[in-house]
Write a structure and sequence with these properties.
With 383 residues, this protein is mainly α. It is built from 16 helices and two strands.
Amino acid sequence: MSVSTLAAAEAPAPPPSPYYPALTGLRAVAAYLVFFLHFRFVGQPDWLVRFTGQGYVGVGMFFVLSGFVIATRYPGRAPLTRAGWGRYLWRRVARIYPVYFLLNGWALARIYWPLPPGQAGNSLFLVFISQSMVRGFSNTLKFVGLPQGWSLTVEECFYLSAPLLLLAWHRRGWAGAAGFVALALSIGLVLTALCAGRPELHGLFGSYRHLFNFTFFGRVLEFVLGVGLARWWAGRPAAAAGRGPWRTLAGALAMVLTVGLLAALRSPIDTYDGLRYPAAIATNILLFPAGVGLLLVGLLSESTWLRHVLASRLAQALGRSSYFFYLLHVSPFSIWWQQHFGWGRHILLQFLATVILSELGYRLLEKPLHRWLLARPLGGTAA
């Protein structure tokens, strides 16, 4: 699921990576799109329901940003030695797992504790696949715990494979990246062909729609697009600086038009498999990320009001706490809110309360745990 900075490795430490404030602010926008997908106002007009109903595109924004950030942290190199890969993975774990473990564990405890008589084995199995972040491979079990946690399986796969992608790109350029995409897609297609329609596998690679809606193997292009943007930006000539805001405007317009197209397609969304219509799936994983990529180019190269807003101190704070927000927004807290105030009631207050709790959670839990883990033997210093 989420975009984050990599900590510096143990000595010798690499030089500090560039930091792009507007992209941190953009993370908050992505998280808030997902919130308003899940929570809608009572009496919301149909056109707004159809528009906010496409808020799942916020997850795709996270995927593109993840690719950009990882490639920015490792320009032209990949941690493929045993020690380097170990430190790299430890920093990823330190960044995303502690708060996931706590909040997802909170949700699991509400569901499975105390263990039902005679079902302890099954319950513990579900807890394991949820806490280990492998549930996203199953179209029937991916929502166990915090339902939005399926996207962290996708992120986890990217983190594991990113050093190979960076190496392939470094040695073979775009051909290496295309080979990586083809390999990932082929693995997903083969696994789905072998596993689909087998109930004993509990939905493991259960359908082709699930493959392209919910797995890294079907959504690999979004990450590769982010990596490609980072490599282009790092190697661009000075003349590549934008003159006028056309990239920002074109990217934002492309994103809005793509969301409008998704709304017009009216694709049913299956609980287990996601978007049903192939045209909607292609729009979500191909066209919308292209718009995100163009917007990122504009935010990097053009001085616009949007860049200034996203780079503001408030947007920075919201962006840094966006991962906590993403995990918290559908959780026992949201269930409590709906039970006390009713479905679709006081949504803006719920949103504000979630933002405030997320900021507190980031400052009091996420950030301290991140730093504490980086101080362990496999970690480094926080970036």
